[in-house]
Amino acid sequence: MNHKDKVVVVGGGPVGALAALYTARRGYQVEVYEFRDDPNGTSASEVKLALIPVTLSERGFRAVESAKVPGLIEDISRHSLPVHSRMVHTRDKRGDLKETSMPYSSNGDCIHIMQRTSIGQRLLLALSNEPNAKIFFDHKLVACDLPSKTATFEDVRWQPQDGELMESAENTKVTEQHSKDAERRKSVTYDYIIGADGAHSAIRKHLMRETNVDYAQQFVDVLWCDFHLPPGPKGNRKLDETHLHVWPDKERVFIVLPEVDGSARGGMVAPVDEFRRLKEHPEELEAFFHSSYPGVIPNLLSAESAKEQFFRRDHLSLMSIKCGKIGWEDSCVLLGDSSHTMPPFYGMGMNTGLEDVRVLFEEFIDPAHREDVYSSINTFCPQGVTKAYTDYRIPDVQTMTDIAREHFEELKEGVPGPVVVARKKVESELQKYVPSLDYVPMYSRIVFGHERFSVALKKDIQQKIVFAGVLASLCVLCLAMLVQAGAGLA
To answer: Which terminal residue of the chain has fewer beta carbons within 10 Å of its beta carbon, N or C?
Structure first.
């Protein structure tokens, strides 16, 4: 069934593409505007940016599966690698290389690693098969009038030649320039607009001009540098592909994710001052790797390649963003990184964004249509739905953002201390053998479960209190037994 409302989605990444898929498959006209080239096109230009690898976990899979596109989830799964454990690389007391495998779950659960562009390409291909969907690449949002429901986009495929803007000081050339600007721009009316245009969201900026929005942006005092780790001479893998690999070292960490083609993608995370020092003293880079990330050079990467990539690739700032308002009336909503940006340490940024889409549609828009089928059948977003969704979702995404920031401390630590290890062991055993207790590790609740992030955090706090109480009781009991034994000897 086709409906009259038109939805505009700003941003054609995984979250925007999935939101458009949900919209199109419910019978609404949808238009997607993406700033970058078509990732599936033969002439698409390469974006030379640092790449932070992505993982797809249970929440993300559920969101994609709920789009109900035949064969889509199977196609995505074929282009991913299942990873069941974290491998921590350190040195032992003798200085030899040491590997410690830490399973993610006692139930055999896994995350899936894929190339960053892979899931977006497949979602866009699925969307292109929907007859009521249109995709416009190379289009940048330059204006959005929320009250009048009008958005203006500029075709960025045309770019001025060097010096052209300087030469346009003459009136005739200025007029020509303005004419070209007008030709490249088009205004679009909509009934509902979805902002899925990332951490530096243009839609969010227009929303903040229209209404008061509490906004918090916080940087982690580290930078990320991307490294490509090629396969061996015969195409063989240099690392176990069933693990995510971590080299922890106090205030820094090196993270490596295997990829489907036999290569791997690594991310060096270190303090800003350390990056600055290494840029000023490139001769120290190899010694730095040997000290902080033992075995990466030369087992995975040559010293020459490490230096070349360090200076060629971008050094990304890692930040978190929280918004106190992510919707406007019943005509605009922010999803994904435009509404919540989190550091990549938990691997939940994209998964949370995909879940945003599912929650908005399945738990708010669809129920509203079922409850008021006659008056809202042609209305994409019935009255009150946007506010209800944002009030519900904001506490969860802000909780997940905090969890992702705090997880960096665990990655830097590498192998946890004995108390933490004992608690995780108890949690895993209880989860496996006494599931009725609902005593589940925090990581499993977040990555392999579906309950709200805020609820998962509350349960984890309660579990820590219970474990601390049990541990204290055991210590008191042991102490009492020792005292009693000592009294007996006396």
So the answer is: C
Q: How many CB atoms lie within 10 A of CB 110?
A: 20
Q: Residue 442: its pLDDT value, please?
A: 86
Q: Measured on CA atoms in the order 283, 289, 291, 297, is the torsion positive or negative? A: negative
Q: What pLDDT, on a 0 to 100 scale, did the predictor assign at position 162?
A: 47
Determine contact, residues 446/407, Cβ cutoff 8 Å. no
Instruction: Give the tokens for residue 134.
Output: 């249109």
Strand partners, 56: 112
Q: Alpha-carbon distance 187 to 208, whole Å?
A: 21
Q: CB–CB of 347/291 below 8 Å? A: no
Residue 118 structure tokens: 């892979």
Write out the DSSP string of 12-38.
-SHHHHHHHHHHHTTT-EEEEE-SS--
Q: Please state the three-class secondary structure of 257-275 as a single string.
A: EECCCCCEEEEEEEEHHHH
Distance CA 190, CA 20 (A): 14
Pairing between β-strand 327-328 and β-strand 332-334 as defined by DSSP bridges: antiparallel
What is the residue-averaged pLDDT of the chain?
86
Place of tokens 């020792």: 482
Q: Could you please report the per-residue DSSP string of 350-398?
A: HHHHHHHHHHHIIIIIHHHHHHTHHHHTT-SS-TTHHHHHHHHHHHHHH
Give the C-alpha separation, 444 to 94, whole Å: 35
Name the region of 149 (left: φ>0; alpha: ψ -120 to 50; beta: rest): left
Residue 353 to residue 239: CA distance in whole angstroms:
30
- In the numeric block, the tokens 């708010």 are attached to 364
Q: What is d(CA 292, CA 270) in angstroms, rounded to the nearest whole number?
A: 10
DSSP 430-469: HHHH-GGG----HHHHHHS--S-HHHHHHHHHHHHHHHHH
| Residue (of 51, 237, 205, 96) closest to 140 by Cα position | 205
Distance in Å from the first CA to the final CA of the chain: 88
Rounded Cα gap, residues 262 and 267, in angstroms: 17
Give the separation between CA 319 and CA 337, rounded to whole angstroms: 11
Q: What residues of the chain score a pLDDT lower than 50?
A: 42-49, 161-175, 177-178, 374
Distance CA 389, CA 364 (A): 6
The Cα 161–Cα 377 span in angstroms is 50
Helix (H) or strand (E) holding 118: helix 116-128
